[in-house]
Amino acid sequence: MRIDDELYQLAVALGRAALARGVRIATAESCTGGLVAGAITAVAGSSDWFDSGFVTYSNEAKIRQLAVPPRTIEQFGAVSEKTALSMAEGALKASRAQWTVAVTGIAGPAGGTPDKPVGTVCFAWVGPGAAKAYRACLPGDRAGIRRESVRIALQGLLDRLA
User: Fold this and answer.
1) CA gap 45, 76 in Å, rounded
2) Containing H/E element for 101?
């Protein structure tokens, strides 16, 4: 996916907000496969405010790299607010960031179920004294779902830092 002007401008604004608050950002991604971190690192100078990105596509990687409890995945599924929150908390602990965002979802074209159709994406943002999880059902094809997921992840961080 190409980083378009809207995503780039969101990442620039996020960088300004992170620098103004003196915080660093980390990402934990599944269905976006590193695209949130890619949008951030497209901004020159992002090394001043971006700490790290974790791409944990498999359940095993979520457990191993981010310490997501296996029981959380078993009970709620990899695509759930609980798992997204655990991913964000794990990224916070595994990095030197003060704010994290996590994204896990079903971008398609396959993998959906009646309870969690293609386009179901769960997000979580964690920072000092704040933790928020959010579930969305996004329309479109795989590329569109992933792009909109990046936008929501970046906007959510920006909203929390602005």
Assistant:
1) 38
2) strand 99-105
% of residues, the chain, pLDDT over 70: 99
Sign of CA dihedral 59, 64, 66, 68: positive
pTM higher than the cut 0.90 = yes
Q: Three-state DSSP class for 4?
A: coil
Q: Which residue has the tokens 């971190």?
A: 37
**Residue 147 belongs to what H/E stretch?**
helix 142-161
1 falls in which pLDDT band (50, 70, 90)? low
Contacts of residue 115, Cβ cutoff 8 Å, sequence gap at least 6: none
Q: How many residues does the chain have?
A: 162
Tokens read off for 26: 């980390």
Mean pLDDT (the chain, rounded): 97
What DSSP character marks residue 18? H
